[in-house]
């Protein structure tokens, strides 16, 4: 994008180009990204589709095709795999549920079965495993809680123990890591704060201390990093910003500078957003860039819910149904 | 690795009885699946073996070839574990295999989870090997989140705490801005079974940190570590002379960033430290604005100026002081 970054379009979101980038992605045969993303196609679908919905263009994809493909990824255990023919994992189960929520198709799910799969991954100490192989991480706590909350059946797990485990991962800087004692990392902080927000347990967060750590993540360029002394990256526009909003401290950063940083990461010719200015774009950063701009109330983008990572109208539809 | 790994699977006699199973991608328009030929063929054979659940030596070799092409594919790792168990395969060889795979790309969750699964089965005998493996990975990327996570697990589950504080020191000597190493240091002093805990370690750690701060006053991690040493003990935090004096010593210098020293002093005042004339003088010396009668207020004003990107945060801190007064 370096050749065009000085053009008159600078400082604008090229929304139509991002939509075309996402829709055209399928035609890029033989790309390395496509090969390595095979097993996590469900995540990719969630990133792409949520971006389209935030840009009010979800109608440009075939709902039937997407929904029927998602359902081919469901395993008899109730969990979803990253693609057809793969093993189920909690990571892809949440993405599948989120995709169905986008299309208002949660009713086609056997909710009892999916929620039992998720609830079955809770361990004695309150933590969650990602699948039957037992890897433990606060990411999985968030996913389980987010998923069961969408189904309105948090009573299927021991919420108190789940919260205790998350709180045991809190560090001296107010942040959270993947397991007790692990370094604070903005991605893990989003998961822990999100899980605490959804379950009404934000009083366990030291908001002023964590808020300060989070706003220290903003560097001179306006971008945010995920840990001290690391490079800024558009993905933290989501992880840091959503956390700051959930603890009501987002006014502590310089929002205008962050908007500019995200816009500077666009490919102005072919669409898509990269991690940093002048790097190659991908669907992951395109989602986080657009979602970040949504949290910053950029015009023309639907509002996204900072805890559920779905458009606010989708969450309202779920909450106010039944 | 097999000598014939450059020959396509379809041309190898060993695989002539297997019908490769192609991926049904449907016509979903959202996310691309495009395969290079070698990758496609290997995956097709893998799927055939996976669905027929063939837990054989050749299946183990096939998972190896598949993981070499894409070490992020979690289903292949899952199946490999089933095969390893069925064959009762030598797990020390498996550690070597993981090390070879990690040379290409060690930033994936699957590889580390698999490593943990193997190490857990081998038990405390491999504690040093795991510490050595993570040390090698950290020598290439000292903030590698997965490697740190595995290292902490190793210490907790398998042991090997003895040299860990020295290791932290070694990393901090190389890069005192390495927040991961400071986090590990805190992990060691609070959890190592032989060091006696935070209280016992505080004095020596304060002096270690103060020394580091004086060399690098602009280092966020150090100031947070210093505060962490007084966790749940505000009384000692404000009364320990080392803390307020390191602030003053930094503020008296003209050649460095003052932000963290100022904010630490502000934190001490907000927690009840009674300011002395020395505190006042050193802060006023830095103030280009109208000296405020209240020292904490003045600190917030200066901080808003030296750290403009967080001006709103410092304005909020100032408003909190007014409330408290």
UniProtKB/TrEMBL annotation, chain A:
What InterPro entries does the database record attribute to this sequence?
PGGT1B-like (IPR045089), Prenyltrans (IPR001330), Ptb1 (IPR026873), Terpenoid_cyclase/PrenylTrfase (IPR008930)
Question: What cofactor does this protein call for?
Answer: Zn(2+)
A Gene Ontology annotation in the biological process aspect, one of them, is: auxin export across the plasma membrane
EC number(s) in its UniProt entry? 2.5.1.60
GO: which molecular function terms? metal ion binding; Rab geranylgeranyltransferase activity
Organism this protein belongs to: Eutrema salsugineum
What do we know about how this protein assembles, alone or with others? Heterotrimer composed of the alpha subunit RGTA, the beta subunit RGTB and REP; within this trimer, RGTA and RGTB form the catalytic component, while REP mediates peptide substrate binding.
Q: Which reaction does it catalyse?
A: geranylgeranyl diphosphate + L-cysteinyl-[protein] = S-geranylgeranyl-L-cysteinyl-[protein] + diphosphate
SUPFAM superfamilies listed in its UniProt record: Terpenoid cyclases/Protein prenyltransferases
Q: Which CDD domains match?
A: GGTase-II (cd02894)
User: Protein name, please?
Assistant: Geranylgeranyl transferase type-2 subunit beta
Which cellular component terms (GO) are annotated to the entry?
Answer: Rab-protein geranylgeranyltransferase complex
Pfam families the UniProt entry points to = Prenyltrans
Query: Which residue intervals define the domain Prenyltransferase alpha-alpha toroid in the entry?
Result: 14-309
Record's Gene3D superfamilies? 1.50.10.20
- What does this protein's record comment on cofactor binding? Binds 1 zinc ion per subunit.
Query: What family does the Swiss-Prot or TrEMBL record give for this protein?
Result: Belongs to the protein prenyltransferase subunit beta family.
Task performed by this protein: Catalyzes the transfer of a geranylgeranyl moiety from geranylgeranyl diphosphate to both cysteines of proteins with the C-terminal sequence -XXCC, -XCXC and -CCXX. Required for male fertility and root tip growth.
Q: What broad class of enzyme is this?
A: transferase
What UniProt keywords are attached to this protein's entry?
Metal-binding, Prenyltransferase, Repeat, Transferase, Zinc
TrEMBL record, chain B:
Could you say which cofactors this protein requires?
Mg(2+)
Q: Any idea which GO molecular function terms this record carries? A: CAAX-protein geranylgeranyltransferase activity; protein farnesyltransferase activity; protein heterodimerization activity
Which GO terms fall under biological process for this protein? negative regulation of abscisic acid-activated signaling pathway; regulation of cell shape; regulation of meristem development; response to water deprivation
User: Is Repeat given among the entry's keywords?
Assistant: yes
Q: EC?
A: 2.5.1.58, 2.5.1.59
Extract the InterPro entries matched here: Prenyl_trans_a
Question: Which reactions are catalysed by this chain?
Answer: geranylgeranyl diphosphate + L-cysteinyl-[protein] = S-geranylgeranyl-L-cysteinyl-[protein] + diphosphate; L-cysteinyl-[protein] + (2E,6E)-farnesyl diphosphate = S-(2E,6E)-farnesyl-L-cysteinyl-[protein] + diphosphate
Q: Which portions of the sequence form the region Disordered? A: 1-21
Matches recorded under PROSITE patterns: PFTA
Q: Does Metal-binding count among this protein's keywords?
A: no
- What superkingdom does the record give? Eukaryota
Which key words tag this protein in UniProt? Magnesium, Prenyltransferase, Repeat, Transferase
- Pfam families reported in the protein's UniProt record: PPTA
GO CC annotation terms, alphabetical: CAAX-protein geranylgeranyltransferase complex; protein farnesyltransferase complex
The UniProt family comment states: Belongs to the protein prenyltransferase subunit alpha family.
The function of this protein is: Essential subunit of both the farnesyltransferase and the geranylgeranyltransferase complex. Contributes to the transfer of a farnesyl or geranylgeranyl moiety from farnesyl or geranylgeranyl diphosphate to a cysteine at the fourth position from the C-terminus of several proteins having the C-terminal sequence Cys-aliphatic-aliphatic-X.
Recorded hits in PANTHER family, A to Z, give: PROTEIN FARNESYLTRANSFERASE ALPHA SUBUNIT/RAB GERANYLGERANYL TRANSFERASE ALPHA SUBUNIT, PROTEIN FARNESYLTRANSFERASE_GERANYLGERANYLTRANSFERASE TYPE-1 SUBUNIT ALPHA
For this entry, the protein name equals: Protein farnesyltransferase/geranylgeranyltransferase type-1 subunit alpha
